[in-house]
Amino acid sequence: MPRRSLFKKPAYVHAVQGVSFDIKKGLIYGLVGESGCGKSTLSRLIVGVEQLTKGKIIFRGTDIVSLLKNNRTRKQMCRHIQLILQDASASLPPNMRVAQILTEPLEIHRIGSVKERIKKLGEVLETVRLNPSILEGYPSELSGGVQQKINIARALMLDVGVLISDESISGLDPVSQAEIMNLYLELNQKNKLTMIFIAHDISTVWFLCDVVIVMYLGKCVEIANNEDLFNSSLHPYTRALIKALPTIEKGLKNKGMYVLKGEVPSPVTLPLGCNFYSRCPNPAKDEECRTKKPALKEYKKNHRVACFKLKD
Amino acid sequence: MEEVELKKKSVKSAKSVKRDPKELFQDKVFLVSVIVLLAITICAIFAPYVSHYDPNKMFIQERLTPPIFLKGGTVKFILGTDGLGRDVLTRILYGLRNSLLIAFLSVAVIFGIGIFVGLLSGIYGKKVDSIIMTAADIQLSVPLLVVAIILLALVRPSVPMIILVLSIAGWPAYARGIRASVLSEKSKDYILAARIMGASPWRILRKYFLYSVFLSTVGFIVLEFGLMIIWEALLSFLGIGIQPPDVSLGTIMGDGLNYLVSAWWITTLPGIFIMIIVLCLSFMSRKVIRLLSPKAG
Amino acid sequence: MNSKLLEIKNLKVVGHTRGSTQTIIDNLSFELNEGESLGIVGESGSGKTILSKSIMRVLDPSCKVVNGRIVFEGKDIYGLSKEELKKIRGFQIAIIYDDPLAILDPICVVEKQVREAIMTYQEGISKSEAIKKVMHMFQILKMPDPEKIVYSFAYQLSGGMQQRVAIALALVGNPKLLIADDATRALDVTIAAQTIEFLREIKQSQRVSLIWISHSLPVCSLLADKIMIMHAGKCIEIGTKDKVLRNPKHFYTKLLLKVTPDVNSPRKKLPLLSGKSNASSTSQYDSGCEFCDICENVKPICYNQAPTLKMVDNNHFCRCHIFN
Fold it and tell me: Terminus-to-terminus CA distance in chain B, angstroms?
């Protein structure tokens, strides 16, 4: 999207550059990376609230990019893919009671009679384990964990096949986080819900996700299965993310944290070569890294990495 | 897991915001304000019954009589008489009629224009916004008095004309306020969540925006009402508003200018009434806004 | 033997909201020695921020300390005069928040703000001397590109850099105690790691005591010597880091440890919590323990009587009826 300033030429924020991956049905995909890596933008592109500059989104065999541009057809897509946002309380309208918030999706899409809607409401409440007593009240009276469950319940009312969670647990306290992660796990195992779980904390991704996609400054740097990624990660950024995790073990041993030096470059003026060049700790980095962009290559089976300096 | 029982009522009757109105009436400040305001309004509406005097009847012998609470005051003229011997209280009551009516209708017009324009500007943005806001800026740069003089020089001042003048001068501030409120709500997550759910822009407007915009409206309306009363009084004070033999708070104040030191009550008392009205409105609106805002968790 | 730096004795803080009075901190006691660091873990609403505000004596007018004492270096914070308080607040005891922009002035460059802080702390120092001190300080703290940073506005700096400037500001008065209230919450993982190492350096080189507040137990354990778990304004477990983390006694502490995913352990697709739903909701009983609805070891007394803090081991206390 263009940003304009009074005297300079319009600048573009390169939010997502050349990202390609497949999502298989029934699995939980983790999208991990720090701020500015484009993961949130990606989630909004998939549900159609942001516009693509270039590329395709293929859902069940059809390219839906043109569908997402048209308001009417985008509305149909809402019944297949939904997005849960990070701020649980801000996502809920302050002037509606919980019962109304939950039946809103059915009203928008004109699904079912009143009786059927009530039945669906009951089922969904049971799935997310919410007490029906909250229905009469307002969301602002409830805790963060419960509010987020309401957001999830609202999405489930539409019987979606794909659920995207954009940092939906980051703002919650640890016990609520665990509850919501359990819920996602259950939804995936029992209801066969396909999930894209976006996080900046790789430990939650470790717990929940079958396949992990690591992003840095708009590009995918590594894609692998959970075990492969955590046991033998290849990209230096992935390694840094894992090593930078605060753990109780590190605390007990008073171990120093692994520090990645340097600042993240701005997504407006991208580096010439590899996006990660300025912070890469690999002593073997050279002119090639600085001037050319590495492509995502399949290094091992189902394990793709974008790096010039992989040891064979 | 127990059987989940749901009442049909809880789904159907789940309407927007209605807090417990009883809370409103438990606040003393609110109650006093409402009572005072109602009293003033009722007296104004039923002015002929409250005071048996004619507002233009002159008691020349008893001109410049002080109000009852000062030395020389009598029961005959509770708030005294003016330079032509007319009963001040009666004139204030009849004047209130015109002032309140004009203020009310002006606010109604501004409300209509403001909501329409402010919503358009905020929601459609870009070109529409630029055009409307430029018009608003142009209007804002022309002071009330210039508008008044230009328009009222062409046509004889009358109640509709005054309402027109006040509306033209008053709509930009209000429209800007609505637009600001729309812009700030537009970026909120629950609007985005509604879009992700598939809600149409019209539905979002109706069910989500109107509430928060309305909330900010209440404060503005009260301020505008108070402002309209003051503006109308100003125009009439200067002689380009309500014309004799009609009365308004401003004309009374204008009449008393020559006697500011000797008979200060003629100019001051209408001003005090204006002050009381605006204060009451302000107290009431504060309480109403607090009531309508969502409770913190 | 290190002297006591901070003592909190039976602290009780209440707050007035919309007509009702709530107890925000209830009978809290702990000690901190010089050079020692305390990690306070608790969810939002547990009173941790009010605690830090109480120590600095900057509570909102709606909150009041109704009981207890806060003693810093032998002096009662609530008994000090305004003059004495001025020397301590912001200088001897400093604080950094999760949002560095809450501390950094948006309209002046970094140099001006740090310099003014130095000039306030050291009355009589000249402007040029103060500027020299700013540069010196930034060099000691090993800030990258100090010349560039010092003449930037806060918004021009990245989140991690802003937080470091906020820390530098906090260090102007050579504080004995630094309170970090969720200081790495808003930072990316790698930047948070940088900040934590930065603070570790400072802790060692400047010999500052740290009170590190967070809702994440792993983050708290990194810089702390002692750990205190807070819930609903009460201390429910406190002890040395080793004891609390290797041998937790309270049900809630154990719960917190369970819900932390450990990347190094073999991955199992099992839920983190078992059994009761809504584990984070605590009971509404007025008397009795807040955890009686969800605790596994609940006994009849738990519903009627609130437990008190009992010693379970050397330097290890727990608030639970099991230890009666």
Answer: 28
